[in-house]
Amino acid sequence: MLDEVRLSQQTMLVLEALVQKPQDWTHGYDIAVRTGLKSGTLYPVLMRLSQRGWLESRWEQPENNGRPRHVYRFTSAGRKRAQAAVAERKSISRVAKPCPA
Amino acid sequence: MLESALIRLLNRLAAHLPEDYSMWCEAIVAESAVIPENIDRLQWLWGGVSVAIKAHASIRIRSIASDSDGRWLPAEVIVAGAYQCLFSVVLLGIIVFQLPRITEPWTDALPAVAICALIASIPSVLGFGLFLLDNAARWGTLVFSVAHALLAWHRISTGVTRPTLPLIRIAFDAFIIAALMRTAIIQRFTPSRVQLKLD
């Protein structure tokens, strides 16, 4: 059971970035590059999504024995909700687009 | 140098956070290692510091504004407690601003100033008591609000002061009295009875 998340513009950017490869684990910096969000905005969104069961996270040990990095991906329930939210957003923006004169 | 200072600061802030928050600060620090540009790395770490500070602030606010079971305090109690604390701050401010006007020797003035400061801090003690859902503080606040409203009314009726500000204070005191006498609020201030089982 997922808790509701307020789908702010920043949250939608994160969902849209992750929904492109919903099965893959993604690093925080990669999400920041894709969304253009700063860490101070991105991480509270990731925290909220994770706390409410949309995302799962784990530490990933890099192959070159570097520092472990935190990676994220959707839970199965989170993936469905995110795909629905992104699809809904796209349909709304399609409807809201002005018709050519 | 600035980078290592930010990492140290972030680690220090994270060390005082619960694990479910500190993990995110560690993630931000770990992620900074892969950012190629120095300035971007500093911005990233600074963002992390802001996340940690906000987490500290939200935990602090939640600890003040919630009871021991983690339930939020009623809004009226938060408003009444904050008003009492503000009242003390104003009174203490007035005392501080009066200090340069004291002409008596400090040995004579100090006990009187200390007593005034002690009296001025009573509302804030009541306010903190309200945040802790202490029933004595609720009664103290009720008595204080009634006394304060009566005093303000007396000042208006004798023409000592213009009525606007005292009337606002009376309205606020009436709000506090009405709020703290509500059944739902009284129940929050009443500790649940401990059930003793004697085997």
Secondary-structure map with pairings?
The complex is a heterodimer of chains A (101) and B (199).
Chain A: H1 9-19, E1 26-27, H2 28-35, H3 39-51, E2 55-60, E3 69-74, H4 76-96
Antiparallel strand pairs in A: 1-3, 2-3
Helix pairs in contact in A: 1-2, 1-4
Chain B: H1 2-15, H2 19-32, H3 38-65, H4 75-98, H5 106-120, H6 122-131, H7 135-157, H8 164-180, H9 183-189
Helix pairs in contact in B: 1-2, 1-3, 2-3, 4-5, 4-6, 6-7, 7-8
Give the tags.
heterodimer, A: 101 residues, alpha+beta, Arc Repressor Mutant, subunit A, three-stranded antiparallel sheet, 4 helices, 14% strand, globular, B: 199 residues, mainly alpha, 9 helices, 76% helix, extended
Protein model, in words:
The complex is a heterodimer of chains A (101) and B (199). Chain A contains four helices and three strands. Chain A is an alpha+beta fold. Chain A has a single domain (9-95), classed as Arc Repressor Mutant, subunit A, CATH 1.10.10.10. A three-stranded antiparallel sheet of chain A has the order 1-3-2. In chain A, a hairpin with an 8-residue loop joins strand 2 and strand 3 (69-74). In chain A, helix 1 packs across helix 2 and helix 1 (9-19) crosses helix 4 (76-96). Chain A is globular. In chain A, 22% of the residues are buried. By secondary structure, chain B is mainly α. Helices cover 76% and strands 0% of the residues of chain B. Chain B has nine helices and no strands. The radius of gyration of chain B is 24 Å and the shape is extended. The termini of chain B are far apart. In chain B, 20% of the residues are buried. The chains are: A alpha+beta (101), B mainly alpha (199). Chain A binds chain B through residues 27-29, 32, 38-44, 46-47, 51, 57, 66-70, and chain B through 20-21, 23-24, 26-28, 30-31, 33-35, 43-48, 50-51, 54.
